């Protein structure tokens, strides 16, 4: 089997490792790029489907509803599956199911029905839910506990790169250097149907690459030895809590439940902004081609990536609640500025808001998970946080309905309000976040010295 050394880590009783195994962490981080690329392709599909199927903005938002609905439905079942198996098996199962979803794009493009495309996206999302539920928690615990949030932010860098790769695949493999909606408007119904079917065939190209990549990753995971990272007692036996006990514990945890609501709104804002940025650019800049409009999303994802890099640096020096509160409120401010301007400037201001989305998901995820002190509940707690991705199914649909009623430009008021509420959540959380990262590190070192240097158990798959 492939490995760095021979199980070069020591697993502590709480499931964390004494050091981060580099190969295993990189392979796990690649999973973040996979779902990043898949989710950014949705932004391309929304524009393509709107033209080919002549959809309203509300109907196009069903792409995100299918995608994030799959996450919502599968998150808890996946956590139960992880309790019975392992993080590694969860990731491999997710890759396999995601591959099935990619394959379903081929019959969907031949049958040319919106519903079958939505079903393929839903199956994709089931696989990605399995991957993300496994990977988010796995990246957090794959090393010393004090660096858990930093590790998750580093892994999420791959997600930002995946977002850029996905939108580039859409720009050059799906979009053409024209405005598809305007082209089809000048055709007869028969010509429009034939040309629309031809353009849907172009959506297959990114998924061919996905299938090849998934096959390679499955082989790598099968051959690589991974740590289990599970809570165990002094005899090395893995400990977990029953689902009913876990849910009862989590529901009584007010900070955890409030955090779930904040994550729901954050995801709704992020997906709403990205789902309709291309549509906004086309609406405010008549004559802009589909391919050129995708440049706004490329820059949005680049800003998102830079924002995450800057936040990762800030999080090593400042308390995470301060950093996130500032990011969320500034993001809301840029969107509001875009609402009071017109044309290309309005689009650019909303693009700038993506910078402040950078640390949102991983830092909020780790912050919420940190409110659950008993590690026996971690898998289920992490899965329910992943379920908050249902915000990406619900809120963009609401934004689409607002767009149909009042215009695409006005609809961006909704994500501005959502980000402002998340900013207030972090302001309220400041009272629980009393230590700077440096103070936290010093406290944990003192605790480790006081524990007398206990050793854990080496376990691997």
UniProtKB/TrEMBL annotation:
GO terms for cellular component: plasma membrane. Residues 439-451 have a biased composition (Basic and acidic residues). It is found in: Cell inner membrane. InterPro entries: Lfuc_symporter_FucP (IPR005275), MFS (IPR011701), MFS_dom (IPR020846), MFS_trans_sf (IPR036259), MFS_TsgA-like (IPR050375). It is a multi-pass membrane protein. Keywords: Cell membrane, Membrane, Transmembrane, Transmembrane helix. Residues 439-461 are annotated as: Disordered. CDD domains: MFS_FucP_like. Pfam families: MFS_1 (PF07690). GO terms for molecular function: fucose:proton symporter activity. SUPFAM superfamilies: MFS general substrate transporter (SSF103473). Residues 24-434 form the Major facilitator superfamily (MFS) profile domain. The chain crosses the membrane at residues 21-38, 58-82, 89-106, 112-131, 152-174, 207-224, 260-282, 294-311, 323-340, 346-369, 381-402, 408-428. Its main location: membrane. NCBIfam families: fucP. This is L-fucose:H+ symporter permease. It comes from Bifidobacterium primatium.
């Amino acid at each position: 089997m492939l490995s760095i050394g021979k199980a070069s880590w020591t697993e502590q009783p709480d499931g964390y490792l004494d050091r981060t195994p580099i190969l295993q962490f990189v392979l796990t981080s690649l999973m973040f790029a996979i779902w990043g690329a898949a989710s950014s392709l949705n932004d391309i599909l929304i524009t393509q489907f709107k033209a080919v199927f002549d959809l309203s903005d509300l109907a196009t938002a069903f792409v995100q509803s299918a995608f994030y609905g799959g996450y919502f439905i599968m998150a808890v079942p996946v956590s139960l599956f992880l309790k019975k198996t392992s993080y590694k098996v969860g990731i491999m199962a997710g890759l396999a199911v995601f591959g099935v979803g990619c394959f379903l794009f081929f019959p969907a493009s031949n049958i040319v029905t919106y519903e079958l495309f939505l079903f393929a996206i839903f199956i994709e999302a089931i696989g990605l839910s399995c991957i993300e539920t496994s990977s988010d928690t796995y990246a957090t615990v794959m090393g010393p506990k004090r660096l858990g949030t930093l590790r998750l932010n580093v892994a999420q860098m791959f997600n930002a790169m995946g977002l850029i790769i996905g939108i580039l695949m859409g720009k050059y493999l799906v979009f053409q250097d024209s405005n598809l909606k305007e082209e089809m408007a000048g055709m007869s119904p028969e010509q429009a149907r034939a040309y629309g079917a031809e353009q849907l065939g172009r959506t297959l190209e990114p998924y061919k690459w996905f299938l090849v990549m998934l096959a390679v990753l499955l082989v790598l995971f099968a051959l690589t030895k991974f740590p289990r990272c599970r809570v165990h007692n002094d005899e090395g036996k893995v400990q977990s809590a029953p689902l009913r006990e876990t849910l009862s514990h989590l529901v009584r945890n007010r900070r955890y439940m409030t955090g779930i609501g904040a994550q729901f709104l954050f995801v709704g804002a992020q997906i709403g902004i990205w789902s309709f940025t291309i549509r906004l650019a086309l609406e405010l800049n008549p004559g802009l081609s589909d391919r050129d409009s995708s440049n706004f999303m490329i820059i949005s994802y680049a800003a998102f990536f830079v924002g995450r890099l800057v936040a990762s640096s800030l999080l090593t020096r400042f308390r995470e609640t301060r950093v996130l509160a500032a990011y969320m409120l500034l993001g809301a401010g840029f969107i509001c500025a875009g609402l009071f301007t017109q044309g290309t400037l309005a689009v650019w201001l909303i693009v700038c808001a993506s910078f402040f989305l950078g640390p949102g998901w991983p830092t909020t995820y780790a912050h919420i998970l940190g409110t659950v002190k008993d590690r026996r509940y971690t898998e289920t707690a992490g899965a329910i946080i992943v379920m908050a991705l249902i915000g990406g199914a619900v809120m963009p649909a609401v934004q689409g309905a607002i767009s149909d009623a009042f215009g695409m430009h006005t609809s961006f008021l909704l994500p501005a309000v959502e980000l402002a509420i998340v900013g207030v959540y972090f302001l309220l959380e400041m009272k629980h976040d009393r230590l700077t990262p440096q103070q936290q590190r010093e406290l944990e070192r003192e605790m480790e010295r006081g524990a007398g240097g206990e050793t854990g158990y080496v376990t691997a798959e």
